[in-house]
Amino acid sequence: MSDIISTVLSFEAACVELSLEKPQYMANMFEREKENNVLRQQSNEEFQESMHLYLAGDHPQLTTARITDVECAILYKTLEYNQFVRSIDLRYNNITDQGCNALGKLLSTNKFIEELNVMCNDFGAEGAAALAKSLFNNTTLKVLRLNGNKIGNAGGMAFAQMLQINTTLKSLDIGDADLTIECLIALATVLRENNTLEALNVNRPLLWTVQEEPTDHFTRMIKVNKGLKELHMQKFNMRDFGACRFAENLMHNFTLTYLNLNCNRITRDGMKELAKVLKLNTGLKCLDLGYNRLEDDGAISLAEAIGTYNTTLECLNIVYNNIGPKGLCAIAEALNFNSALTSLYIWGNHFDDAVNMAFSTHLHSERLQEQNCDIGSYVVDGKVYLNQTGFLIRRHYYYAPIFGDDVPEWQIRGEQVRRADHTVPIVHHENDPLVLKS
């Protein structure tokens, strides 16, 4: 089964075997793919070797129903030996542990699926364990996203155990999943030896201590791990001690390119230590420090590293850090000496006329591109102001627009529904006194 026709036949056979009606959403998406295949043949385009099965539940233009455990069973029967579907998007649906068991069986038997997205569903530790167990022998899945499912400590432990065996998974997202200290330490310990995982998201764990033990274990892991390129640790209750520990160990790491420390409690002291890392020109290309408390002193330390030493950092996020005009002007000045930093996000800090003019100059000279920053400029009565735009880091990670020029390639574009014509016929009555008078 390596084309859309055989996939549709398998889908219909699965519904018959399970004595279920064809789910309309799945049927529509397969039909859409068939239509696209016909259009490609008519325009003599290359034959499509794979398909992205889009079944997200947050696309109101495509469906008002959500995928449930029943549809997961049909999906398992349909794709059990399928070679055409390479990625599945099931986010924002109503999949529970039972549905995850079916998806786990699918990953155990199918040898061609490379990406599975089940973020923001309704399964817990049992479902997570089923998915983790299926990856013990799976050698094809590269991306797994479970963000927003409450898998807890048991689910996190299952993935830590899986990473001891699996050597093909490249990206794992288990953020906002109620992870605890025990499974975080287990994950950090396993990643000392696992050098195949390239991206890890462990945002917003449930921590009952302020001693930063999980942060310390992750910083020690960073020192020896040579495979991880992307690490997300939002809402870790990280303070300056954790930032300093990161700085100490990042000096020995030249593979990590993206570090997300958003929504923590890092102040100027932690920023001064992180600035020392930037001065060494490590592999870090994207640093997210939004929603901390760097203030002017932290921003000045950051600006010094950017303007005089660093030539590798390409993206910086410092939104909502209580930075005043002095610190922001220092950042703007640093851009005059740094050509590597192309993406900058600064909204939520304190602007004045000097800040407005400095960044407006960078915008008009195209030193900062509109799509690479979160600010725009406008003039009222001869005075320059800055406004917030909608561009953010990882803008299309959790959601994506369905209309306009900003729809990414993987997102299904919505169809514009024509509005009904509400025309009211005008009838002139011969005996109408108003008509006769006119």
UniProtKB/TrEMBL annotation:
One family name in Pfam for this protein: LRR_6
InterPro entries: Leu-rich_rpt, LRR-containing_regulator, LRR_dom_sf
Protein name: Leucine-rich repeat-containing protein 34 isoform X1
Keyword terms: Repeat
PANTHER family in UniProt: LEUCINE-RICH REPEAT-CONTAINING PROTEIN, LEUCINE-RICH REPEAT-CONTAINING PROTEIN 34
Entries under SUPFAM superfamilies matching the protein: RNI-like
